[in-house]
## 1
Amino acid sequence: MKPEFSLRSSQVIARSLKITRTTHSLVASITAAVALNSMVAIQYLGLSGQAALLVAVFVSLGVGSLAVSKDVYSRSIQTVANLRSIGATTGSISSALASAMIVYGMVGAVIGVAAGGAMGFALGGSVSGGASILSEAIGVIAVSSGAIAAGFYIGARTTWRS
Amino acid sequence: MAQLGVYQRPAQAVDHERFAIVVNHVKKSYGPDGESEIYSDLHFQLLRGTFVAMVGPIGSGKTTLVNMFAGLEKPTAGTITVQGEEITRMDPDSLAAFRARMIGLVPQVQTLIPELTVYENVELPLRFAKVGGDMRRRMVEQVMAKVGIRGESGRIVGSMSVGERQMVSFARALANDPPILLLDEPTEALDPLMSEVILGLLRGDNMIEKRTIFVTTHDKRVTAIARRTLRVQRKIP
């Protein structure tokens, strides 16, 4: 995905579409919960189990984000039209929305990974397959935030084209 | 007619370099079978740098014409060329990008974003036109000073009066210094003082910046400062 906007621009567009702090908190909380559970589970799974888990995380967060972006569109249809009347393209709005969400998705994922990693150790889990805890953590963060961004981008592109 | 900026030349004789807007045998109708016809064969050209007002009864299609010039509505038949580019053939995203560069629009229904500040609203078209940070800041400050709303930059638009919002809308339309300015009933909801400010700005802008201005209105003060007035005679049944 080619970013068309700075973070500041993304935040302005997100506010225009009534994406409030509540929405950001919700995105961060969901990603944190998913990342926490993934980090705990990953310490008890083999390599194929880990791969399957990451795919499941990607698909579920992507589908969830897609549904949310369609909901945002239905609530903000007039605002989208207003933005288009002053030169906004579908790509500019969807990129802005996705990049605004990826920040909060990543914040949530980092919190979830830290909490999940600690919890896994506390429960007696171990890092499997010789991979370091750092690479496991980076994998979960990347998958979670990437899925959020992809879901919002694809949702916005497909719904907001006309 | 010619010296006042509106022509009715045959399509093949039109020099697009000279004209801001070329309306070529446009037909516009609504309804599934096109039963509500607004324009049957509209054909004229607006010279670059002219100031044209359009008057006519409510429901006569003035807003439809502004929307078609801005590419927000497509004609049922015929073509519209703006600044040498045929907008009737463009896809929605190309049209949006074209609008960001070429057209300043002050619609009848205000389209400002109420959640954003005055500064952010004025800045939006420049962000969409991908104008860089320093240049963008300079352009926004310049246009806000021009319109006289510099002191209001931090206010949330949702908390402003109709008249104040209209000034912001006007500033936003001018922000990217477009060659064409389209205004739909710009003084309709304003008190006399605000209207005078807008009229002064329009007059000065057309004279100094040589911007093409097309405005729909019922206000005789607007037609008085326009170089040409088009009248739509009939009301749509």
## 2
Amino acid sequence: MAAFVIAILIAAVRFWQIAILAQLLTSYVEFIRNTPLIVQLFFFAFGLPALFSYVWPFWCHALLALTVNFSGYFSAMLYSGFLKTPHGQIEAAKSIGLRKWIIFRKVILPQTLRSMYPSLCSQFIFVFLTTGVISEIGVVDLTHSGLYIDSRTFRSFEVFIVLTVLYVFLALLFRAVLHLIFSKKLNLGN
Amino acid sequence: MQEISAALFGKPEGIIVWQLIAATRFTIYLSLIAFFGGGVVAAFICFARISPSGLAKRVAASYIWIFQSIPLLMILFLAGLGVPRFLGINVDPWTAAALSLTIFTSAYLAEVWRGAFHAVPSGQWEGGAALGLSFIKIFFIIILPQAYRYALGPTVGFLVQIIKGTSLAYIIGFQDLMLLGKRWANSPIPGSEPYLIFPLMALIYFALCFPLSKIATVLEKKHSL
């Protein structure tokens, strides 16, 4: 969720082309999207704490890394969605004297969300499926508990099959929930 | 080469930089294997998916659905640890990583290509059928030459996902950029602190992926619908 808000902000800055900030954020997004999540994760979990010598629980590092990662992906999608908004609508909104922020919130964002939500959903599922890697820094997530059971019992095949089924089930669940949320929200928008 | 790099960046750093770049080789090999292997499998799956046979269609659709819903991590664990232990055989990391990434790639590429075939207007199929051509003939003479242009951009774009995906193969002991970088970051040698190594690795991955995503964007624009 945090990632989503950040993503909207980043995409907004890029859309209005706010001088240097937009260029910086564009390179940020490109960088996030073109490096593996696991490298980012290790950097946030081991690199930064070593540099600034602070200690956080594992899940905080994971949360930070995932937020950064998700925001990169989402903002890239939203940005391309914003660009598809017909220009006439923005001009119309400007001509009736709306401020940029209002135009963005009331005119551009709802339309973009409506047209982009299938791809946002599938992107979310894709990213969700990659979150298993956070077990690598010691966060006790589904994958981690699976590995734990595996190392105790040595029954890898059974453990991984069960994990796989669970992931598939969760992916289905998320797909259904997202669909529900979006269809509700979008109907209210009408 | 290692000496040149060491002379350029100083003693520990130069060696690390060079070793990381040398390990990137395996990342690239694995990506290429996955891309071509996955491409071949995906071609069959995609062909089955759009074929007129109902059974083939359903089998292909479920293949795509299943392997798109399973995380790559799980495919890797299953191929590298689960299945070998279950069958009591030894599979080396190369085979397991190549196999998993091939499966992963094939499921996604098949879907991408199916989309490309769908983008070809159905009138083209009907026109071909009206001329009395068989399914195979329509497919290869009429549809394929049109569809490949739609598929080109997303396919190159997916190559980026494959390269990023190979970074997970270190989990089953595949010696690539990721494993080596992690090993260096864990070592107590000064000059190999994690906050230097991981950005460096990110840069190498970026250098691999960024040109590809740019090419993909250009191709997509060029052949957009």
